[in-house]
TrEMBL record:
Coiled-coil ranges (or none): 308-338
Protein name: Endosialidase-like protein
Keyword Signal: yes
Species this chain originates from: Mucilaginibacter jinjuensis
Signal peptide: 1-19
Keywords (A to Z) from UniProt: Coiled coil, Signal
């Protein structure tokens, strides 16, 4: 008898293992390889159907605090986390909600829209990733959006696009929006990015919409422009005045060779002739050259030093001539005095 009973139970268990288990009253169906909740014909390993939130994850208790779609309180003493997937009231969105540990409302924290846009801190993302932080006065010491931490010595945030064709458009940028009196973003005041001309150039710029230019620019060759996006062949080009306490210029030489014994000093007559012909001192650039090309500060300082040292030599020579004339005049005066006495 026992053997017959065991055989019947074994056969029943085998039949149950390969049959569909369905509870129409609760809308749950379990087949041999699929589970359906809210549907009797699950099309995936797990399918949850219905118009309300798909998943509630509470704080290890029996019920969630609030229904995030209706706002109805389920249990005012419990917090919850809710995941809403493809509910009919919100289209094909994938939404994540949380609430305080005890009581309070349920707030949406992140959403993936049916268009594939992800919003963190906002429910209407218009880009592939939109993040909105708090930035309130009470937490000005903390970042409004995110901290980036790396495991090793550096952390990277990479921004780019999918254009790989050489010479194609490869512009990428970070935009900083200003706010109007109502606290709404109204325009991009500042922009940081690369390829300001969108011509496939590996440059870097900081752009001001108000000024309608790039106050700071680094070309693909490493030349820097401040107030200009055209530094040309200069390592640093500044369109405007510079205020500083000191300028140190590396020099390859200096004008002290003028004092060398073998240096041949031009005569003042030669200097006069050059000035009459060229209307400037020798070695000095002309007015036209200065207006066209500017001046090399280090080079012009060297030339001026050379001219000052030459002028010093001329003064020394004139002093010697003057002393010699005085001495000669003194001898003449002595002779004249002796002649008068005789």
């Amino acid at each position: 008898m026992k053997r017959i009973l065991l055989l019947i139970l074994s056969s029943f268990a085998t039949i149950c293992a390969y049959a569909q288990f369905s509870t129409p009253s609760t809308g749950m169906t379990v087949t041999t390889d699929k589970v359906g909740i809210g549907t009797t014909t699950p099309g995936a390993k797990l399918e949850i159907a219905g118009t309300g939130p798909s998943i509630f994850l509470d704080n290890a208790q029996l019920a969630a605090n609030r229904n995030p779609l209706t706002g109805a309180v389920v249990d005012g003493t419990k917090g919850s986390t809710a995941i809403v997937m493809s509910a009919s009231s919100n289209g094909g969105n994938f939404q994540f909600y949380t609430s305080p540990a005890i009581g309070g409302s349920v707030y949406e924290r992140m959403r993936i829209t049916e268009a594939g846009n992800i919003g963190i801190g906002m429910i209407n993302p218009t880009a592939k990733l939109s993040i909105q932080g708090t930035g309130t006065v009470s937490n000005t010491g903390a970042p409004a959006i995110a901290d980036l931490f790396g495991t090793f010595d550096r952390t990277r945030l990479t921004i780019g696009n999918s254009t790989t064709t050489p010479g194609g458009t490869r512009s990428s940028a970070i935009l900083f929006y200003g706010m109007n009196a109502n606290g709404n973003a109204y325009k991009s005041n500042w922009e940081i990015g690369n390829d300001i001309g969108a011509h496939g150039i590996n440059d870097f710029y900081i752009f001001s919409v108000d000024l309608n230019n790039a106050p700071f620019y680094i070309s693909a060759t490493g030349n820097v422009g401040i107030g200009t996006a055209v530094p040309g062949g200069y390592k640093l080009a500044v369109a405007g005045t510079i205020h500083t306490q000191a300028v140190n210029v590396d020099m390859a030489g200096w004008g002290d060779y003028v004092f060398a014994p073998k240096y041949k000093l031009a005569s003042l007559k030669q200097v006069e002739n050059y000035i009459n012909q060229n209307h400037r001192l020798s070695d000095m650039p002309s007015e036209g050259e200065v207006i066209k090309n500017g001046i090399d500060v280090g080079k012009i300082a060297e030339i001026q030093t050379k001219k000052i040292e030459e002028l010093t030599l001329y003064l020394i020579a004139l002093k010697k001539e003057n002393d010699a004339l005085k001495k000669e005049q003194a001898e003449i005066n002595k002779k004249l005095n002796r002649h008068h006495l005789n």
